[in-house]
Design goal:
- The complex is a heterodimer of chains A (274) and B (283).
- Chain A contains 7 helices and 12 strands.
- Chain A is of the alpha/beta class and 274 residues long.
- Chain A has a domain of 130 residues: P-loop containing nucleotide triphosphate hydrolases (Rossmann fold), CATH 3.40.50.300.
- In chain A, strands 5-6-7-3-8-9 form a 6-stranded mixed beta sheet, sandwiched between helices. Chain A has a 3-stranded antiparallel beta sheet with strand order 2-1-4, covered by helices on one side.
- Chain B is built from 14 helices and no strands.
- In chain B, 50% of the residues are buried.
- Classes of the chains: A alpha/beta (274), B mainly alpha (283).
């Protein structure tokens, strides 16, 4: 099976520093890969390399030829000068029939807002509009950058439910970004933890993500299913250097520099959450 | 009067026809100028147009062509200077805008063997519009509008969010570059009507006026063109009645229309149309 997107040893350089470096990543059809990590750890940058918005300064990024992509960016600011209804926004990158538009809005629960101006939507409604627009593209790969931001807790649960349902219905691959270490959605197939580079990756236990398990234990509304505990053993200092747990300071943060994780491993499998 | 307009025999009829042509191009382009916050950018390009005029006299080439080439060169240098990003982009724009205006004025002054009516370059001159100018405006303008229609979706997507457009394969960079070229063409052909100092006003004021009456980007572009046409008509008739310069008169007329749009009339019109035909608001 050819992956939808592949990053190999990819990195981005800014002003002599490497905000993110040495990333190996592949998303297969139907697979949900979640990127987590603290602020500034390079999650969005990694996703932008995968999407082709940024060209890696090191390593390679490749996409399957003709890949149909749906993208939910982290921030979209709609200026007052721009008259933009939800309905028009839905057709931003491709024409839709009214029924296609309406069914996507129904799927995300904002069909009643199709004539509303984007500027007037609440945080949760705006995120749903972004999602609705992305799914109308019938994407093979859906990239979601912090899709629950600005949404309250119960809204977060509903949105993650919706995202999982979208994957099940479209069968698309997903690259999902979250800064929340505690909240990695239950349906994630693989979690990649970034902190300037890949610190560790692994699958939340296969059973925990299976529908049978969820039905049996009734945890559908429990978004904290795949809790992932992880202690970062190094800190990125303001000047771009890295302070490690053993007290040393290095210029870069790279798996190869040997300072990460006292056991010397560069990758850890995430321990079972339950 | 109407027969005069069609025969294009009187200078006034030519001015009206030329002005309407410019307004029809300026409206849709102007919408993108205000959506993308390019007002100062447009100002820079139009100030540089004076440099283009000076170069045209110096090299003895067609004025419209020289202005177009100068505008394109200024756009490219702006893009390059902005990538370096040592100065804020409005500082870079101010630097280029006034330097090129000053350079144009100095070069024109140095060419003592040529007598130029500077006021007509700066403020526009209806007397100067010839039948050939009208041809240039309508052929060039039609080309600009067709091109704009072709790149409309990617350009608009990139205006809302460049990264989203890029991720979903819309090629925003190509759309942006084509838009810059269209703007340069518009400035080259509009210069004679409103003058280099006031071209930006033709772009911005009708578009800003249209915003209050619009529910969608396409609707706003069409309305901006129509409002621009109204401004040209009011402005030119006013300029004939009170013997004022054409450029400032047109700009003043469009400013007047903008003021009208601030009154409750705008919301009343929008509400009435919404009641009559709710479907229209979403198209």
């Amino acid at each position: 099976m050819t992956p939808l997107i592949t990053l190999q040893n990819a990195g981005i350089q800014r002003d002599g520093l490497w905000p993110v470096r040495g990333v190996d990543l592949a998303v297969n059809p139907g697979e949900i890969v979640t990127l987590i990590g603290p602020n500034g750890s390079g999650k969005s940058t990694t996703a932008k390399m995968a999407l082709g918005i940024l060209k890696p300064d090191e390593g390679t990024a490749s996409r399957r030829p003709g890949l149909q992509v749906g993208y939910v960016p982290q921030k979209i600011f709609i200026d007052w000068t721009l008259p933009l209804t939800v309905e028009r926004f839905m057709q931003l990158t491709g024409k839709l029939t009214p029924s296609e538009c309406q069914s996507a809005l129904e799927a995300t629960g904002i069909a009643h807002l199709s004539r509303a101006e984007m500027r007037h939507l609440s945080g949760g409604e705006f995120q749903r509009a972004l999602l609705a627009r992305a799914i109308t593209r019938k994407p093979e790969l859906l990239v979601l950058d912090e899709p629950v931001q600005g949404v309250d807790f119960s809204g977060e649960i509903a949105l993650y439910d919706l995202i999982k349902r979208i994957r099940d219905e479209l069968g698309c691959g997903m690259l999902l970004i979250s800064h929340d270490l505690h909240l990695v959605m239950a349906a994630t197939d693989r979690v990649i933890c970034l902190n300037g580079h890949i610190c560790c990756q692994g699958s939340p236990k296969a059973v925990a993500s299976s529908v049978e398990y969820q039905d049996l234990f009734g945890v559908r509304a429990d978004p904290a299913l795949a809790i992932y505990k992880h202690r970062h053993d190094h800190t990125h200092l303001p000047d771009g250097t890295v302070s490690h747990a053993d007290g040393t300071v290095t210029d870069n943060c790279h798996p190869g520099d040997g300072h990460h994780h006292s056991d010397g491993a560069t990758e850890k499998v995430i321990p079972d959450a339950r | 009067m109407l027969a005069d307009l069609f025969a294009l025999d009187s200078f006034f009829a030519r001015a009206v026809v030329a002005g309407i042509g410019v307004a029809l191009i300026a409206g849709p382009l102007g919408c993108f100028v205000i959506w993308r916050r390019l007002a100062y950018f447009g100002d820079t390009l139009s100030h540089a147009a004076l440099l283009g005029v000076a170069l045209a006299f110096l090299l003895e080439i067609n004025i419209t062509l020289a202005v177009f080439i100068t505008s394109v060169l200024i756009s490219i240098s702006l893009l390059m200077l902005q990538k370096r990003a040592t100065l804020s982009s409005d500082a870079v724009l101010g630097l280029l805008s006034h330097s090129s205006l000053a350079l144009g004025l100095v070069v024109l002054a140095l060419m003592v063997w040529i007598r130029i009516d500077l006021m007509s370059l700066l403020l526009g001159d209806i007397l100067a519009v010839s039948k050939a100018d009208i041809d240039v405006i309508y052929i060039g303008g039609a080309a600009v509008l067709v091109m704009l229609a072709l790149i409309w979706r990617p350009l608009f997507a990139a205006t809302v969010n460049r990264e989203l457009a890029e991720a979903e394969g819309m090629n925003p960079n190509r759309a942006n570059i084509i838009f810059m070229v269209l703007l340069a063409i518009m400035i080259a052909i509009a210069m004679k009507i409103v003058g280099v100092l006031l071209i930006t006003a033709m772009l911005i004021i009708p578009a800003a006026t249209a915003r209050r009456f619009s529910a969608g980007p396409e609707q706003m572009a069409v309305l901006a063109a129509l409002i621009g046409v109204l401004a040209v008509l009011f402005g030119l008739f006013g300029s004939r009645t009170w013997d004022t310069q054409s450029g400032p008169s047109i700009v003043l007329a469009s400013f007047f229309l903008f003021l009208v749009s601030l009154t409750p009339l705008a919301s009343w019109l929008t509400a009435r149309r919404q009641r009559r035909n709710p479907k229209e608001m979403s198209s």
